[in-house]
Design brief:
- This protein is an alpha+beta fold and 225 residues long.
- 41% of the residues lie in helices and 13% in strands.
- The radius of gyration is 19 Å and the shape is globular.
């Protein structure tokens, strides 16, 4: 019985933290981007995010040596992480289906395919906008006027965070400049390195030479280092 309790405890811990950390990976050749709530990319989840837009645009399986960590986002609450993920997926769908007619008329089929596959810059700009939307939503939410009526509600009220600070750890801090502006409560830092180049380090691991500057645009943050 004791040995069976370990996996149950681990599974419970994973479920409790689901949404607190978002790992972003990009393809080193095509600059396609996928999102994951786990350190390791999973074929089933990642492939669903890659649309078929032409020959060799969607692989049958992911090659680990073709994908590299782009950033890790750490949220104050699971709900905020899940909501941000859904916003990112909606923005991605817009980029893949809505674009200027000149692209259809002036570009070849091959050029259009690689233009749509390249979502690195869009994804970073989408992240900044998604965080802005979510942070504003949390800050504008009015506090409850009535006291919690049940034990569960009281516990939720006690555990609710008082701030909405979000941490973004980058593999390359200069990638933050793809976004024109970041919300003031978003902090930026170095992601560090894992033991494998295709795997993001744990978000809880200490980072050497971390860069954390709050309340400045991305370009000013980089210049501060």
């Amino acid at each position: 019985m004791a040995s069976a309790a370990v996996p149950r405890k681990a599974a419970r811990q994973i479920a409790n933290n689901h949404g607190r950390e978002l790992y972003i990976y990009n393809h080193i050749q095509t600059k396609q981007v996928v999102y994951s709530f786990t350190q390791n990319l999973k074929n089933s989840d990642a492939l669903k995010q890659i649309p078929f837009i032409g020959k060799k645009s969607r692989p049958a399986a992911l090659r680990k040596d073709h994908w590299a960590p782009l950033a890790t986002v750490i949220f104050p609450t699971k709900a905020m992480g899940l909501s941000t993920y859904h916003l990112l997926r909606e923005f991605r769908k817009m980029h893949e289906t809505m674009y200027e007619k000149s692209i259809m008329l002036e570009k070849s089929k091959r050029e259009r395919k690689y233009m749509i596959m390249d979502q690195k810059a869009n994804s970073i700009a989408d992240l900044a906008e998604s965080l802005r939307i979510e942070i504003a939503r949390v800050q504008e939410k009015k506090p409850r006027k009535e006291e919690a009526q049940t034990k569960e509600e009281a516990q939720t009220e006690e555990e609710a965070p008082t701030d909405v600070n979000v941490m973004v750890r980058w593999r390359n801090i200069l990638d933050a400049e793809y976004a024109a502006e970041w919300p003031p409560s978003v902090m930026h830092g170095d992601q560090g390195r894992a033991d494998r180049p295709y795997k993001a380090p744990k978000a809880s691991e200490p980072v050497v030479g971390d860069l954390v500057v709050e309340g400045q645009p991305a370009k000013e943050q980089v210049a501060t280092a």
